[in-house]
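Crash report, auto-generated. Payload:
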Amino acid sequence: MKLLNHTSKYLAILLVPLISIWAFIFYYAMLDEIYDSLDDGLENQKVLLLERLPTNPEILEHNDLDLWSHAITPISKKQYEQFEDRNSDTLMYMLNERDFEPVRVYETKLAYNDNYYKVKFITSMVEEDDLIQDLVVYLIVLYASLMIAIVILNNLMLKKIWKPFHSLMRQLRDFRIEKNHHIKTIDTNIEEFKLLNTSITTLIDQSRARYLEQQHFIENASHELQTPLAISINKLELFLENTKLPADDIKTMASVLDNLGRLTRMNKSLLLLSKIENRQFVDEETIDFNSLTANIIGDFEDLASHKHIVLHLEEHSNLNFQMNKDLAVVLMTNLVKNAIIHGQRNNTVTIKIHEKSISISNFGVAEALNANLIFSRFKKISNDKKSTGLGLAIAKAISEKYGIGLEYRYSEEHIFKLTFF
Amino acid sequence: MKLLIIEDEPEMLENMSQTLEREHYIVETASDYKTALQKIAVYDYDCILLDITLPDGNGLELLKALKLSGKDDGVIIVSAKDSLDDRLDGLNLGADDYLPKPFHMAELHARVKAVLRRRHFEGNQYIHIGNVSVQPENRRVTVDNHEIVLNRKEYDILMYLITNKTRLVTKSALAEHVWGDHIDQSDSFDFIYSQIKNLRKKLEHATINIEAVYGVGYKLETD
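Recovered output after restart:
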């Protein structure tokens, strides 16, 4: 649930008791005010009556409440002295409504010409049930309009306010540290978003710097290893040339040289991998994969026939693709080499070129390999000592650089498929 | 033949000069930019082996200076960087070849000889060894004046062995030279044997032999 709707939800829940309590207080405050004002009006009636009395003494005969809205009853002096003014509510039958309706009653006393009277004033009162009903209806309307206002406000204003946040999130979702993406922050005058913007910019800059440092570390380390490797290999070669050695010693020396060669190849592969990841292959040209594949097959013929593997090329279409030439060679070489090295003796390695794809398939172990691990660095599938474990990782890195699909699947054969988009 | 090796790593320098001196070249050395610049200015060399990363300057600047002074010494760039840019810059500046470190001694000899051959004979020359003669320009090989037809790999193997004659050439050096760098990672270099076998058959009347050395490599011997 979005934060926006989340706050709205709580607001909606919170508003119910809030408005209810408010309605309660408001109702009684209003009622109090109404009573006050009615009682004032009734008292005023008494004052008016007293003023009119000297000129209209017949008023004292008014005793029908229904007719005069006041009723005067004579009382004894004793009663007069004991009487205290009082306000009260009562019900009266209203002809227009044909029902008993609440009325406010003011009972007081007056003395006129040594006669004592009790006076009862009435006035029609607010109908509480109607008032409550109206109040409830209006409150529901208020609640509904408040909620609509909040939702509209959220969706229009808050959306605008949260724009920097959403823009940042969109960019973070697509962010890949290996790509030189810059996060563009939207200027905002909201303190929290400013903080978020600067924090994320700093975080990304630092991570990117670390990443590059690490990338270059691998590259630099590989570079630095080249010279000692060169010195060792050359010294051994010179030694082999200069010295007459018994056969066993020559074999030992050759084995050392072989291993140094392996080290060199691994080093070169690491260097190549970090160079691909550091985007150092910029030049691109249109590569004719048909002729490239044919050339590579030519290079590997001897290796294949040594393993009694037949390389079989099926060209269903011409395939041209724009990329760096050296990387195209490395990509195809690594896949073909992989198929030959892990291929089954006395069987075939088939390379099929279609309009948008190339598949390289070989027979081998009769079960699917772990497709998740196969392209990882140093995940050797075979126990082949001389494999660097980097060939497929390099192929993957190259295909990713150019958005070429590279997938592995197994159906009788191990199939690596390149898809060119 | 006079060579200059410009290399700041002393042991690397020693290795290279040792192996090249054995070929009876006159080898001079320089281990920094300043010395190298002086030597280039004063003397002429048939081939200069140039390391790009020098403590006090960039080897490519030396190459520029050399070409600016109108000299046409052969130049092979030797670099640990193996970067495409350096390779292209170097070749564009007029270097003859680019040799990434680490390399096999056999490869160094092959490259140096190729440069020397190109510069001194413009390719129009025969290499005679025993009763075999090779014309690098058009890749023709004759045994006792009878032409033998070699495929690309057989020719490359023969030339590589001739260039490194009487020196042990390891299988990996041979494989990398003839089949290319990408042949690495193969489970062994034994696959080169079939081409060697074919080549031996074609050279059966020649007075040169391709000898296998304890399964380590090959050596070309003359009878």
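Post-recovery validation: Chain B touches chain A through 46 residues (CB under 8 Å).
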